[in-house]
Amino acid sequence: MAAKKANAFDPEQSPREIEDKFEMLQILNEEGEIINKEMDPGMSDEQLTELMTRMVWTRILDQRSISLNRQGRLGFYAPTAGQEASQLASQFALESEDFILPGYRDVPQIIFHGLPLEQAFLWSRGHFQGSDVPDGVNIFLPQIIIGAQYIQAAGVALGKQKRGEKSVVITYTGDGGTSQGDFYEGINFAGAFNSPAIFVIQNNQYAISTPRSLQTKAKTLAQKGIAAGIPSVLVDGMDPLAVYAVTKQARERALNGGGPTLIETMCYRYGPHTMAGDDPTRYRTSETDSEWEKRDPLIRFRKYLEAKGLWNEEKENEVIERAKEEIKAAIKKADAAPKQKVSDFLNIMYRGEMPQNVKEQLDIYTEKESK
Ligand SMILES: Cc1ncc(C[n+]2csc(CCOP(=O)(O)OP(=O)(O)O)c2C)c(N)n1
């Protein structure tokens, strides 16, 4: 066979030769067995139990939130079941000084990063107290504009770098988000400045009703990072160990001046896109649902922990009961929040100096509300 010329352009091979390198990284298989010892992050028994606890707790939060939304007791809600490993194992790899810039589906991560649950409920209701993030809780509120958080994350990461802070920024978008201009601008900017950012793409297979296959001609979403010159990895997003391992590695690299990483987490959203009325049965089959349910992050992590003697039914039931109690108490607190006024929104908008035009509006509303 003739040797390929170094400067030849072979349209049949490009972009295949890059795409074929993106195999999905997995550590824990569907049976809960370690199949990739080299990458095992070596979490302690306590860490493993805590991560499982958080995933079970979040599954219950999801069920309760759907039900509360149907009762008219919650506002906006984007279901999370199926994405627990992708969401919580990545957050678990962070430290509290790291900053999270979530999308609208990423409420569990910001709760475990310190946002009180009642505030998450109030945010869902559009109540100003939900947006009043406590000092020291390093999060932005969930972004609704698809992809916008990628640009913001690049900016926050650059700020951290300039101030010499020893912490990183993580942001999340979906498969659909990778078609937005903001996505490319964000990863390119962070790459160009070598900023400490972790960009997560939660590929849950659908952007509302648009399947991943129609989203892009690219074989993987992870490969998009290569054009920006940043290390990129495709990982099994239903494998908590794999998600934790790659996020931790990305964090350490960023802290050591290695710059950003892009992580595609292959996962599935079991529920509808949001509670606003889409019907998943119109764009996917129950066979597809069942295929993905077999890969469930809770099932495989439960098997893994049970085999290690770290988990059992009794433990799980305790977590479920505690979750229900905490959710009940948080909704009660949210119900007790004061009726909001326009001035409340204006007052929480700025941590620093309020601009003159906002001050003027605040005066107008304060006057109106006093009557
Ligand atoms: C800039 C912008 N365009 C359109 C929308 C409407 N919209 C809301 S969610 C969504 C799909 C996003 O899908 P994906 O990025 O895959 O995230 P997922 O919801 O699956 O987590 C769209 C198009 C929006 N919010 N922002």
From TrEMBL:
Residues 310-340 form a coiled coil. Transmembrane segments: none annotated. The keyword Nucleotidyltransferase does not apply. Keywords: Coiled coil, Oxidoreductase, Pyruvate, Thiamine pyrophosphate. InterPro entries: Alpha-ketoacid_DH_E1_comp (IPR050771), DH_E1 (IPR001017), PdhA/BkdA (IPR017596), THDP-binding (IPR029061). It catalyses: N(6)-[(R)-lipoyl]-L-lysyl-[protein] + pyruvate + H(+) = N(6)-[(R)-S(8)-acetyldihydrolipoyl]-L-lysyl-[protein] + CO2. It comes from the Bacteria. Residues 53-342 form the Dehydrogenase E1 component domain. It is an enzyme of class 1 (oxidoreductase). The keyword Oxidoreductase applies. Its EC number is 1.2.4.1. It holds the Pfam family E1_dh. Its cofactor is thiamine diphosphate. NCBIfam families: PDH_E1_alph_x. The pyruvate dehydrogenase complex catalyzes the overall conversion of pyruvate to acetyl-CoA and CO(2). It contains multiple copies of three enzymatic components: pyruvate dehydrogenase (E1), dihydrolipoamide acetyltransferase (E2) and lipoamide dehydrogenase (E3). Heterodimer of an alpha and a beta chain. This is Pyruvate dehydrogenase E1 component subunit alpha. It comes from Bhargavaea beijingensis. The lineage of its organism: Bacteria, Bacillati, Bacillota, Bacilli, Bacillales. The gene is pdhA.
